[in-house]
Amino acid sequence: MKLLDLCCGPDEGTLARRRQFLKLSSLFTVAGALPLLQAGREARAAEPDAPVRIGYLPITDATPLLVAHHNKLFEAQGLQVEKPRRFRSWSQIVEAFLAGQVNVVHLLMPMTIWSRYGSRSPAKVVAWNHMEGSCLTVLPDVDKLEDLGGTTVAIPFWYSVHNIVLQRILQEAGLEFISEGEPGAKQVKLVVMSPGDMLPALGSRRISGYIVAEPFNAMAELLKVGKVWRFTGDVWRNHACCVVTMHERDLQERPDWSQKVVSAIVQAQVWTRDHRAEAVDILSRDNAADYTPHTRETLGRVLLPSAELDAEYARTGAIRHADWQEKRIDFQPYPFPSYTEKLVELLKTTYVLGRNEFLQELDPAFVARDLVDDRYVKQAIQAAGGMAAFGLPESFTRTETFSVS
């Protein structure tokens, strides 16, 4: 593997990131989303029986969508499906989704909250795509978290579990965070970057760390340009990050189609839990399907359990709650209401750039009912063998555990 440098200098990179954020911000406003939503309505009117069109980023969070496609689980449900479309940034995938170019996507869960209540986007969360699967990675010479003071750390987006967890970790170390200007000795500057841009930025020391989905943390370890400081799943136990999102109109007007889509994704999660090595092969760049640009070695470090690695992470403090027995990434589709409620509560006290007044008006219990449609995933789980198929109790309720220390 070779570490590629960024395609633009620091000033150009900052401007590019700002443009991307402003573009996505505009999509998540009523006025900005309107042209795309109109295009989406026209697309659905012209093709009411559209096939499954998946949009994804090449991160391990997308695993169930890609496995379902590769293993022809959609076809087994009697559905037509096109080759999944790979996007580079969240703004690209959101634009395509709103415009109706794709109809099944994985999005950052906090982003779906911003979308539905910021732009009134008619979309619903129908399932979790995975659990855990993200880390805070820092430069090898960072010996204590306070060393991040006066430096820049990248996040994938302001509305992300990554941002929520990172801010709590920094606060525990007595650090503040800013988004503009030069950080002081006790401050960390947070910047938004696409996942693919983070590794080269770390390798060239333009940032001192990043918190993002796999396999970019594993890549930093293998290239020896970074080390995992903390797993997000070691802070928020069994948390979701990316979730399966679909158009509300499809859920209302094509219930049979929607059920089959969700059932195929749930089946893919069950299969992946029992066939992790095969999933590595499916996602690898050596696969003719070309789903991701990642190597088997990189993906295996994420998807394949390793007691030896876990022991080392416990020694370094990347894992503090070994008794939780969390996997680096795991798969479970049910969108627990308690998670959504906790997420809304945390977002209210998390710094996010842009207009966010709507957050303070949100009732967590209402969002859990309104944003999420769990009808289809409940049926799919029961058909797949119940919650026991995912190693969980037969219950659709749980208690959230969030602990930085």
In words, what does this structure look like?
The chain has 405 residues and is of the alpha/beta class. Helix content is 44%, strand content 14%. The strands form three sheets. Strands 8-9-7-10-6-11 form a six-stranded mixed sheet, sandwiched between helices. Residues 1-11 have low confidence and may be disordered.
Strand order of the largest sheet: 8-9-7-10-6-11
Question: Helix/strand/pairing class, anyone?
Answer: alpha/beta
How would a crystallographer describe the biggest sheet? Answer: 6 strands, mixed
How much helix is in the residues? 40-55%
Residue fraction in strands: 5-15%
**Uncertain stretches:** 1-11
Radius of gyration based on Cα positions: 20 Å
Number of strands: 13
How far the N terminus sits from the C terminus, by CA atoms, comes to: 35 Å
Put simply, the count of helices is 18
Mean pLDDT: 92
What is the general shape?
A: globular
